[in-house]
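Page 47, continued from p. 46.
Same chain as before, 210 aa.
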Amino acid sequence: MLKQSALILSLAAVTGACAYKEAGEPLDTRYFGSATHENAAIISGDLSYTVQLANRFASEVPSTITFDFDSARLDESARLVLDQQAGWIKQFPEVRFKVFGHTDAVGSERYNKSLGLRRARAAVNYLVRHGISRKRLEAVVSFGETQPLVLTDQRERRNRRTVTEVSGFVQSRVNSLDGRYAEIIYRDYVESAVAERTLTHESAIEASLD
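Result:
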């Protein structure tokens, strides 16, 4: 009798675990995981992949560099941050970025907007020199002194900054969020691996001829 009761309970548990759900009910993350849920949300339009990438960029890489007073020169600390940004950006060859320039409140509004733009362009030019296509970078927006991090009319380094943000996708790939997206993302990596093997093979042939 005890064995029969245990068997009934086991069958009930299995039946409950395999119970069908109505169409349209939320996916059970115990079986499908958050990746499936997010992919479904992106396809349906409930979740923006641009927003997801923007949040990932902001969490994985410093997005801000600062400047000396009345200067658009990139110091060593700024270059180190931009190096990290360049490394991250290279992983996503279909993504576009904007660099926003800011100043502190010292000086006229007209001068500060010009200075903020020069700072943004300095950051963009550095990223271009480190392998990022200029077509993927935009430095046309300058907030000047209008969006300070610290509310003060005095000199404040934290307000003298540029901020790099994800802005969207390269137009030719804007609809590529399908099963081939991973292939697109890792294209440069795959090509570099092939080039390295080819070079090694050619070097071996040259060595055998010497």
